[in-house]
Specification:
30% of the residues lie in helices and 19% in strands. It is an alpha/beta fold. It has a domain of 113 residues: Oxidized Rhodanese, domain 1 (3-Layer(aba) Sandwich). The strands form three sheets. It has a five-stranded parallel sheet with strand order 3-9-8-4-5. Strand 1 and strand 2 form a beta hairpin. The radius of gyration is 15 Å and the shape is globular. The two termini are 23 Å apart. The relative contact order is 0.18.
């Protein structure tokens, strides 16, 4: 897949709004995310869509940080080359007190980091915590890996990395 048509859902290409040969494309995506963040007063650099996250990671302009539990990654799946750093642990989702130390051991503080969780909630908290700890470019991936619950109490039906038909694997 190229950066112009990063994915297809039901056979329809999703346009990311920039040409594949444009070397400035990642900067454009990040600037849009920063502008959205400024208008929303977020405590982190900004929000990106799953398609934008895929384009940034594919271009080598960002690292995808999967903040879900190891169990979620194993049984639900994960994006290839994502970096696992659990924000919470166990079935009660107890905050991981080592999150920032583990993050710092795996990435540099000046890298573009795209935090992803199940639905975009924990990853927003993780991006905010990372920003407070001087990670200068921590973004949240909207919709997360599985998206929000639908009317039937199920995920993967209206949003998220998997629903958008982006690459993923399962152990």
């Amino acid at each position: 897949m190229d950066l112009q048509t990063a994915s297809s859902v039901n056979g329809s290409a999703i346009s990311l709004g920039f040409p594949t040969a444009d070397a400035d494309a990642p900067a454009v995506v990040l600037q849009r995310a920063r502008e959205r963040a400024a208008s929303s007063r977020l405590g982190y650099a900004g929000n990106v869509t799953p398609e934008e996250a895929f384009a940034l990671v594919s271009a080598g302009a960002a690292r995808l940080i999967d903040v879900r539990t190891p169990e979620e990654r194993k049984f639900v799946g994960h994006a290839p080359r994502s970096v696992p750093v659990a924000w919470a642990t166990g079935t009660a989702f107890t905050r991981n007190p080592r999150f920032l130390r583990e993050l710092e051991a795996k990435v540099h503080k000046d890298e573009v980091l795209l935090m992803i969780c199940r639905s975009g909630t924990r990853s927003a908290a993780a991006a905010e915590a990372a920003t407070k700890a001087q990670f200068s470019q921590a973004f949240n991936v909207l919709e997360g890996f599985e998206g929000e619950l639908d009317g039937s109490g199920r995920r993967n039906s209206s949003g998220g990395w998997k629903f958008r038909d982006l690459p993923w694997t399962q152990d």
